[in-house]
TrEMBL record:
Coiled-coil ranges from the UniProt annotation: none
Domain GGDEF: start-end pairs: 382-519
GO cellular component: plasma membrane
Pfam families found in the cross-reference section: CHASE4, GGDEF
GO terms for biological process, alphabetical: cell adhesion involved in single-species biofilm formation; negative regulation of bacterial-type flagellum-dependent cell motility
Annotated TM spans: 12-37, 272-292
Organism annotation: Halomonas qinghailakensis
One MF term in the entry's GO annotations: diguanylate cyclase activity
Enzyme Commission number(s) from the entry: 2.7.7.65
PROSITE patterns given in the database record: GGDEF (PS50887)
Entry protein name: diguanylate cyclase
Key words, A-Z: Membrane, Nucleotidyltransferase, Transferase, Transmembrane, Transmembrane helix
Amino acid sequence: MHQRIPRSLRFRFFVALGGLLLCAIASLAAISAWLIFPTLQAEERATVKRELDRVERSFKLDQQQLHAQVRDWAHWDDTYQFIRGDYPRYADVNFSQEMFEDMRYQFMAFFTSSGEVHFLAGINPETGSYQTCRATIGDCSWMTPWVNSMQAAIEDNRTDQISIYANHPPAIVASSPVLRTDKRGVSPGWLFKTRTLNSEWLSFMEVYTGLPISLSLSHESAPLSDSFSFSGNTVVAERYFPVSGSPTPMSLSIGIELNRTSYLTSLTTFRYVLLWTAGLMIMVIALVLLLLEKIVLKPLRLLTQFTQQVGTDGTDTYGLTKRNDEIGLLSRTFQEQFACQQQLNAELLKLSTHDALTGLPNRRLFDQRLETAFAEAVLAPNALAVMMLDIDHFKLYNDHYGHQCGDECLQQVAGAFNSIATAFNFLIARTGGEEFSAILPGVSPESAKEIGEQLTQAIDHLQLPHATSPVKPYVTVSVGIAMLKDSKSPSASAVMSAADQALYLAKAAGRHQVVLFKPPLANTTFSAHNTPL
């Protein structure tokens, strides 16, 4: 009778712990399937959507800049005189192929108030040659689809706006009524400008956003929601925009292709965590069973035989690894595995928040820190400055010296930037190909500009040869700075947009300089566009 009781207790204890283990594993599986994995998938979709939002903001900014340039030209006394026939040398003085190429224009058209063609100018998409015409005949017949669509827009009163035309390739079109500079009197006509969404435009946007972008036209109305396509290690996402001037509904889709490495790595890591958790639970239950065997039913020899099969471990805060028995062996083995896992997690965190080439924080970490700095600046409130820095004519550098030298150049520039950022205790990140961004909380505009000057001087001191640069014979940078108080709206994206405008002004002014964003006056656009280039 006394011989059967220990066996019965051992069997009951084993069944109870086994049932508990199965319930715990089932609970982990259910939580993973119904909560964790859907959360990871939702986070991945949110990340992709944020990238689409960034591409859309860049696309909208390009449209707004084109519209601002059209208004600058249209609200100009010289243009007003030209369309009235009082300035015959207007086209010779203001138009050239170089101007069209620099401003990335495809076509410009002047119409009278009745919608008749007054003057046409553009770059022939087939020959690449610059042409001016008074009518869409002969060599200028390629302009006919543009003119027809624009005249239809004038007839339908769809002017002074930005549109997308379904040409091949598609294009963005901006229009404005021609007025005097002071906007007095009646408009004598209309001005249209087009920018083709061709391969050059795609390359420009890819460099600007740092993302691979694709365009396609669809003979359907623009869907209200984005589309996502997951395939292996990549996800393709598309956002749709309505197209104007087409007899049938059409839409333009802008797509991006992103690597799913971060999501798949997180998924794999979580699966490993589940396996480790399940394994740890099994280990604990086995240990309890073994302790029961050691204390109640079997001698210590059985526990010794089991634990001798376990490897060694490292540091232990509870002193278990200092024991010279089986528990000490088990503790040392577990701690070694845990330390290895911690090291892998630390490496994974660094890879997800830092740029692999330069070692600087990447776009993801920069966006997180910007949101935090913005929230603190608004709550305090404190001053907040942001910078956008761009290596001048880096494409020319890559074309001349090769991409390997370009990578080395980026590393040296990043090192110089990081030295200044460390000295002044602010964050600087690589947010694009040759684009860097910085967050400077609690600094005045003057201090921000002084730091910007030190950043440009640090790159000047490197004296990295740049034989093809039209700015200097060595690598230089341009810097745009914006203060939170000067942005159009109290948001992180608005202040970054202001810094981007300041960087644009620095480039337009000849590059290799620091420009502090100044809020525009009422009813005017940016000062860089007040006079046509």
